[in-house]
Description:
The complex is a heterodimer.
Chain A: E1 2-9, H1 14-27, E2 32-38, E3 47-55, E4 70-73, E5 94-98, H2 102-109, E6 115-119, H3 121-129, H4 135-144, H5 150-161, H6 163-179, E7 181-182
Parallel strand pairs in A: 1-4, 4-5, 5-6
Antiparallel strand pairs in A: 1-3, 2-3, 6-7
Helix pairs in contact in A: 1-4, 1-5, 3-4, 3-6, 4-5, 4-6, 5-6
Chain B: E1 2-6, H1 8-18, E2 23-24, H2 33-44, E3 51-52, H3 58-71, E4 75-76, H4 81-96, E5 102-107, H5 121-125, E6 132-135, H6 139-154, E7 162-167, E8 176-180, H7 183-190, H8 214-246, E9 253-256, E10 263-267, H9 271-284, E11 289-294, E12 296-298, H10 302-309, E13 314-319, H11 330-338, E14 345-350, H12 360-375
Parallel strand pairs in B: 2-3, 2-4, 5-7, 6-7, 10-11, 10-13, 13-14
Antiparallel strand pairs in B: 1-8, 6-12, 9-11
Amino acid sequence: xxxxxxxxxxxxxxxxxxxxxxxxxxxxxxxxxxxxxxxxxxxxxxxxxxxxxxxxxxxxxxxxxxxxxxxxxxxxxxxxxxxxxxxxxxxxxxxxxxxxxxxxxxxxxxxxxxxxxxxxxxxxxxxxxxxxxxxxxxxxxxxxxxxxxxxxxxxxxxxxxxxxxxxxxxxxxxxxxxxxxxx
Amino acid sequence: xxxxxxxxxxxxxxxxxxxxxxxxxxxxxxxxxxxxxxxxxxxxxxxxxxxxxxxxxxxxxxxxxxxxxxxxxxxxxxxxxxxxxxxxxxxxxxxxxxxxxxxxxxxxxxxxxxxxxxxxxxxxxxxxxxxxxxxxxxxxxxxxxxxxxxxxxxxxxxxxxxxxxxxxxxxxxxxxxxxxxxxxxxxxxxxxxxxxxxxxxxxxxxxxxxxxxxxxxxxxxxxxxxxxxxxxxxxxxxxxxxxxxxxxxxxxxxxxxxxxxxxxxxxxxxxxxxxxxxxxxxxxxxxxxxxxxxxxxxxxxxxxxxxxxxxxxxxxxxxxxxxxxxxxxxxxxxxxxxxxxxxxxxxxxxxxxxxxxxxxxxxxxxxxxxxxxxxxxxxxxxxxxxxxxxxxxxxxxxxxxxx
Lengths: 183, 403
C-alpha cells in the first residue's frame, strides 16, 4: 500500500491532478486507487490538500492520509502559508516538488525527505497550455518517481481532458518527466 | 461489464441514467451538485430520454417527482442536508402515496453550525418518513445499491421510496474503480417500469390523497407497514439475484470476523471500510475484534442484527450523528431494541461529525476500549471519541460577557 498526499493552492488543479493519477494507476496499471479530497470552504489561492491510497488489492481505508509515503507539493511557498507538508513523514518518505530553485529544494530536503524529485512544472505547463496550472505536468514528475509509468499518465490525461486539451497536457507531462531531477 | 474510475456522485448519476427514469427533478446542493449537473447533461446530450424539470427548491423537486410517480413513470431526484430537510413535508407524501422512487442522499450535516461536510444527521432526521434507507461503504456499492434499490422499491410487495445514502466528500468526491454493466444487462435486471397501485388513466380515473378519516387512516398506515416489513424479505432476494447476475454480493447486515470476537463495532457508511481495515490489522496482532456493517437501516433489520450480535460479549455502536436529546444515537437505539433480553454489553460512540475524519487510529482506540471493558480493566468508554480537549472553551464570547 502506498499513501500519497498532494498539497497546493486552490486553482492549481490539485484535486483534479490526484483524480487523473488515480485513473492512471487504476485503469492502466491494474492497481486500485482511491482519492479522498479534503474540502474546506475553498477559494482560489487558499491552501488545499488531497489524499490518495494505492494498493494491489481494493482499498478498504476511507480516511485522509496522515503518514504519507509520497508528498507532492504544487506550490513551494506553502510553508509561508503555515502549511507543514512534512507532517507525518517517515524515513522512507519522498517528495515531489514544483520548483527548480536549488535553495528551495535544499530547504525541503532538510525537512527530512529521503529523496526530492524536483522540476519547474508551472513553467512547462505554461509553455504547453498557456496557463499556470501545473496539475498535468506534475503528474510527469510523479511518473519519474516511479509511482506509475509516464505512458499510463499520458493515457489518463487524454481520457480526462479529451483530444485537443488532452494532447497538450500529456505533452507537458512528458517534458516534465524528462526534466525532473533528483536530490 | 466495463471498468471505470468514477467518484460517488458520478457513479450515482450513471446508475440513475441506466435505470431510465422518465422524469428527473434535481435541485443542486453541496455535496450533491455534480449529480444534478450530470443528470442535466445526460438529458441535454441525449444520453437519457427524460424530462428534466428545473425546480426552484428541493420541496418542489420532490413534489414534481411525486406527481410524476402518480402519473405512472419512473422518476428520481437527489439531495443532501438542508435540501433533504426542506423536502421533509413531501417525503411522507411520496411514501404514503407508495411512489417507488430511488433518491441518492449525499450525507452532510444540518445547520447550525453551518457545515458542507459529512455526517448522517440529515438522513437520520428523515428516518421516520416512511422511506427505506440503505447506506453505502464505497463507490461500487453506491452504483449497485441504486440498481437494486429500484428493483426493491418497485416490487409489488413493497412499493415504497428508498434513500440510497452515502457519505459526502468521503464517497461523493472520492474516485474509485468500479464495474459498470451494459444498458441491456441493467434493463434485464430491473425490467420496464410498470405503474402499480396508482396511475393516471382518463379511462380509469381514481382519487388519491383525499382527506382520509379515522375509519381508514390506520389501515392505510398498516398497509405501509406491511410494505416496509416485506422490504427486508425482498431486499434479501434482490441482493441474491444481483449477485447471481453481476457477481457482487451486498448483504443487509454484514458480519465480519464476529464468531469468536470479544468486541465488535457496528456502523453505517464509508467508515466500515476503515473499520474492516483495522479489524484485519488487530486480528494480525492476535486481538479478537470484528465488525457488523449495516447496509439496511430502514426498515431496521432487527432480526438480522440480533442474530449477528447476540453472542458477542461487548458491542460498540458508532453513530455519525449527534441526535440531540436522544438517549445515545439513533443506530445505538435501534441496535439496543434488537438486542432486548440478551447479555450483550452495548456501548455507544459518537464521532465523525461535520466532516471530521474517522481515521484508523480512532477506530483502533474504540476497539481497545471495548477490549478493556471485556477484560474488566475499564468500566466506561469515551462516548464522544474524537472530541477535542477544552471543548467548552471553543468560540466562547470573551468580550462584553453577559451572565
